[in-house]
Amino acid sequence: MQTAAEPVPDAPAAAIPRMAAGDARTTKQNGSAMPKNSNAAKVDVSYGAEMITVLEGLEPVRKRPGMYIGSTGSRGLHHMVYEVVDNAVDEALAGFCTEVSVILCENGAVTVRDNGRGIPVDVHQRTGKSALETVMTVLHAGGKFGQGGYKVSGGLHGVGISVVNALSSYVKVSVWRQNMEYSMEFAYGKPTSQLVVTALPADLDSGSGSNFQSDAPMRCGTQVTFLPDPKIFTSVTEFDFDMLAERLRQLAFLNGGLSITLKDERKPGNISNANASEPLEGDDETPAEQSRPNRADSGVAGKLPRTEIFMYEGGIREYSAYLCRNKTALHEEVIYMNETVNDVQVEMTLQWSADSYTDLVLGFANNIRTVDGGTHIDGFKTSLTRTFNSMARKLGKLKEKQANLSGEFIREGLTAVVSVKVPDPEFEGQTKTKLGNPEVRSIVEKVTSTCFADFVELSPQVLFKVYEKAMNAFDAAQAARNARELVRRKTVLESSTLPGKLADCSSREPAEAEIFIVEGDSAGGSAKQGRDRFFQAILPLRGKILNIEKAEDGRIYRNTEIQALISALGLGIRGEAFDVSQLRYHRIVILSDADVDGAHIRTLLLTFFFRYQRALLENGFIYIACPPLYKVTRKSGSKSGGGTFLFDEAELRAYLDKQANPATVTVQRFKGLGEMMPQQLWDTTMNPDSRRMKQVTVDDAAAADALFRLLMGDEVAPRREFIESHAASLDLDSIDF
C-alpha cells in the first residue's frame, strides 16, 4: 500500500472559494462554467503552423517525463532501475543470461550488470550509428519489435533504456562481446563520447561468481551506470533498498533459476531520510515506503554495505510459499501447472489457506504485474469454477439437484499466481496493467481445466477440503444476507439518524465533494465549524471502529459505525463490483489525532477500506490529512506576533535552530484535534490551498494483504517479530506516552 504525498489533486475543491454568509455562487450553464462573453471562446486566427512545436530525439521525454515513467517522484525514480533490469531479464527469458546485479553506488548512481549477450554494437543501417547508440538515443528502438529479436519481452513499448538515458545527467554503457569491450558515455540523452573499443585479454574470466559483482570486464554481458538528473527528480533522488528488493525478489520468483543480486555501496552518512520527511507537497512517497525504517536511522545503517541475493530454483512454487508464509495451509502440496500452447507459456500455482477468507490472485504477463487483470485472469477464474464444480459432482460431493458453487466461494482463502509468457502481448493502456490478448483466455482456460482435473484425480482429498471451506463460505454468506439487506435499505436520506452524525455538504457533484472522517464529537465539532459547507462533509465516529480483519459479515453489518461509513459513502455491499457512480465523495479523508490512538484509528479505517472495498484505494479515493503537531508563537515584545504551524519534531527542531533567541518563542503542542480552534483547523488541515495531505494507493496487493494480515490478524508471533525488527527505527522522542 502506498501514500503519495505529492500535491493532492485538489482542483475541484481549490477552485471553490471559501464562502461567507450570504455569498452567491456561479452555477454552470449548459454543462460549461465559461462566461458568455469570455475571450477564451474566440478563435485566434493567428494560430498557424509556425506555432506548432516539434520535439525531436529524446526531447519529449525530458519535456513530459511522467508520460514515460509515471511520475517524477519516488515511483518514477525506481522505475528507471526496473527498465534497465527488464532488459537483462529479457536476455534471461531468451536463454542467454543467468546473473543480474544491481548496485547502489556511493555517488547516488545505479549500476545494472548482466552476463547476457551484450547490446549489439555494429552499425544500424537505418540510423547510420552503432546499434548501441541507437538504442540509447532513439525511442522505440530495440530487439522487441521485429521477428529476429526477443521472442518474449516485458518491455513492449521499447522506450526503457532510452528514457533512462534521457532522464539522467550521466550514463555510461559498457558492452562485452566478441572478445572486445565497447563503452560509450551520455548526458541528458545525448552522447558525450565516441564508441570506445578495447580488446579483451585472452585469459579473461567468464565473469561469473564473485567476479560478476565487481566492475571488471567480462567475456560477455552489459553494464549500465546512470545518475538520475536532479532537475527532473526534484523531490527525491535517493533509491530505497527495500523497494528495489521487493521488485527484484518478484522477478527472481517469476524466472526460476535466475540469480539477481542487490548491493548497497552507499555510506551510512550519505543515506538521508529525505524521502520520508521532506515537505509533503513535493514528496511522492508511499505509505509502505514511509513506514519503513530508513537505513541511516535504523541501526541497520552501520551494517552497510548491504547485499541480498535472490535466486529461486522453484520459481513461482517458492513464490506461493512466500506469499502464504503467515497463513495456515489447507493442503500441504502446492498445486503447480506449467504448459505451453501455441507459443504461449502458462505457469500457475494454487494454494488454499484454512485461516484466510479472501482470495489473492496475482497475474503477470511477461513478468509485468497486471494489476487490473486481463484475459489470463478471466480465463483462470472461469475455468477453475467450472472444473471444480465438475470434479465435485464426479466425486460425489455435489449432488444432482444441488446448484453449482459460485467462484467467490471456491476461491475463498486461495492464493494463486498466474504467469503467462506471450510473444505479442496486447496491453490495455500505457501503464500495461491489463492484458488484452483474446487468444490467451482460451489457452489459460484449457490449461487450468486439464491440469486441475489431473491433480484432483490423484489428490481428491484436496478438493474435499476446499469443498468444505467453500460450503462454509456459502453458509456464512447466507447468514449475512439479512444484515446486507438492512444496509441496502439504508439510504442517504436517512443520514440524519446515522449514529455518526453526518454533516453533509451542499454540493451533489462527487468529483468536487470530500468527506472528513474524524474521531469523536470534539474534533467533529471543530471540523464542522471550520469546514467549507459547500464541498466538505464531516462524519464523526465514536471511538475505534470494528477490526473487520477478524469479523464475520454479520457482525460487520450490525456495527453502527460501519453502517454509518457504508451509508454515508454509498459503498454498497461487500464483494459486489465497485460502482463509482454510487460513491458520494471522490475524496475520502481520514482525519485523526497525531498520537498512538489516532494511528490505530487510521489503521482500522485503512483495514476497513482495503477489505471491504479495495477499489477505493486502487482508484485513489482515500487520503490521510496531516494536521500540525506544534504551533510556535513569539512572546510579547518580540518583533512580530502571529504563529507558525509545524508538522513534526524535525520541523520544530529546524525552526528553533534558526532562531537567534529561542527563549522568545513559545511552543504549543496539540494533543488532539479538539484543542484546535475551527479557524486553525481550516487554515492548517482543511483549506485546499494550504493543507498537507497524503493519497493512499495500492501498488502491490500481495504486500498489502500480508501487512494487513500481520498487523490486524489473529497471529501474535509474526506481529511481535515485526515490532521487534522495526524497534530500532523508532524515534523515541516523537512518541506520545
Automatic annotation (TrEMBL):
GO MF: ATP binding; DNA binding; DNA negative supercoiling activity; metal ion binding
Biased composition (Polar residues): 27-38
Pfam families according to UniProt: DNA_gyraseB, DNA_gyraseB_C, HATPase_c, Toprim
GO CC list: chromosome
Record-listed E.C. numbers: 5.6.2.2
PROSITE patterns: TOPOISOMERASE_II, TOPRIM
Biological process, per Gene Ontology: DNA topological change
Cofactor(s) annotated in UniProt: Ca(2+); Mg(2+); Mn(2+)
Protein's UniProt keywords contain Flavoprotein: no
Ranges for region Disordered: 1-38, 265-300
Domain Toprim: 513-628
Record key words, sorted: ATP-binding, DNA-binding, Isomerase, Magnesium, Metal-binding, Nucleotide-binding, Topoisomerase, Transit peptide
The keyword Phosphoprotein belongs to this UniProt entry's keyword annotation: no
Family to which the UniProt record says this protein belongs: Belongs to the type II topoisomerase GyrB family.
Subunit structure: Made up of two chains. The A chain is responsible for DNA breakage and rejoining; the B chain catalyzes ATP hydrolysis.
Name listed for the protein in its UniProt record: DNA gyrase subunit B
